[in-house]
Amino acid sequence: xxxxTLLPGLxxxxxxxxxxxxYRRAWLAAxxxxxxxGFGVILAPALLAALAATGAPKAWLWAGATVLVATLVYWIxxxxxxxxxxxxxxxxxxxxxVTGLVLAGAGAGWSAPxxxxxxxxxxxxxxxxTQVTNFYDGADLNLATTVAxxxxxxxxxSPGGGYTAAGAMGLLxxxxxxxxxxxxxxxxxLGDAGSFAVATFAVLCAAAWLGGIEGLDPAFALPLALPVLxxxxxxxxRIVERHDLLTRNYLHLYQRLQRTRPGFVYLxxxxxxxxxxxxxxxxxxxxxxxxxxxxxxAAALTVVPAYFLMRRVFLPPHQREPGQAERLRKFCVVxxxxxxxxxxxxxxxxxxQTVVAVVTSRPEHAPAGAAVHADLESALSHxxxxxxxxxxxxxxxHDAQVVRVLEAGHDVVVEKPAFVMPRAALRAAELAAERKRxxxxxxxxxxxxxxxxxxxxxxxxxxxxxxVSIRFLIPEMPAGTFRQEGGPANSVLYxxxxxxxxxxxxxxxxxxxxxxxxxxxxxGKADRIALVGGDTALPIQADFGLGTPYENSVTIELADGxxxxxxxxxxxxxxxxxxxxxxxxxxxEAPDAFRAMLSRSADAWLDGQPARLDRSVKAAAxxxxxxxxxxxxxxxx
Length: 637
Description:
alpha/beta; single chain; 53% helix; 8-stranded mixed sheet; 6-stranded parallel sheet
């Protein structure tokens, strides 16, 4: 029985069965309130099953098994979030193993040193492809369509069958149930696991071509060229600019093209560059060049220029103006509500910083000497780039204002919650990275001795902790503020819940586990909210909003039955704080946290900015998900 008669039915049935089980379990586990991820794990067993059904040699089967095991590791990453170092190590080891196995079984033409050297290149290529493909899963059905088209191209390029054609057919079959389940509405993601499986299969195809044991035309290895070049370029930027090499910072070409929302547009370079490159490859062969030379020359003539043309949509981080390495000295304050007038502006003035301008509809509240602008555009058109913007407007205005200020090339400090919509947070993070500008979400409590003490204690007792309790209750909301305007952006969830999400992140826990304690309700409209999260080993409980008496504390409950309470925790004014435990109460004096936050230098903010903004993007997604729970429940009814 040939592959053309056996494999399609086998792979489709296998993938459909796995898909149905995985979909049902993930959907039920999510309580039908979230989008399950990790569906892409089925691509790896489908690939292995396809190779086995084709009668592939042991080297290929071991390579397929390696992809399967590594994909399961990435599935764990989908669920738990593994460290960047571990993910990179898994990708590199898998690339080396897959390449080495295939080449070792290719015959006597490959000596051991050559196999090792080429396998190391395969490991590097796998890291590059995984870095790029990991984020493509946001395209969902578009990514699946693109992969399906490339698999079809591989099959057409191998009319005699072969193992790469079999693998392509397996992946194609696995994508069929994904397309069916994910067409409308979007209910699944390929996730890191599916993206990793696609990346390693590309390395497998390239190794097969290098080994000369396949009918696959070498021109079809060229889709590897663009992501490898892109990752190399970004890696060089990170080294030159001294970025954290293991933190996402939105410099990749596909991230720049993606902009504010997923879609097919940012996948186009990968697809569009293939036809001309293949055409150039065949043309060069007509001049008598061998396969390897023609492919390298075609990549140099088409992929490299295409990349550098496309990257013009984004300029690499440019050097900051002289003087910006020091403290941010000049500010334009946007919004002159009570918070700005009584806390932020006095803190700036006490620091010796200058309020050069304000944006307000109430000029009588402007500090002496500050230029008054009626709107943000007026301020941006008049102020130089060394003026930072301090945004203290209602949360509903933050999304547009932060993005606009960053587009204009200024540093930004914005009151919490910084963002209402996740895609605005992503766009702002991209702009801050592109322009190398400071973007700060103003959590003043992070700049207190009590916060430092909590994190130090947490590092010591985390393994002995059995729960975390967060309580932030106030008898009434301040009158005459945005809190009376209604809407999710002005709700308790965003106004106070932003503190809760930030603390959960600071403790290294997953805020995506937070759900309403009663399993129902509408957090976007409630005056008091109870959330639970974490896991069975370390649960999180949060109670915040309107309530009496006033409470503002964080409690760590230890396995031995003791506890430590830090209060008042979410607080920025100078004064005493307390740490209470079974041994009594310790008094901790705290200076003005607003002054401490606003006096930090630009370099200090930029040093840890990629990781900090990644948390802000995730926090916006968590708050948005909680805010829309009520609406999603009403739609299901």
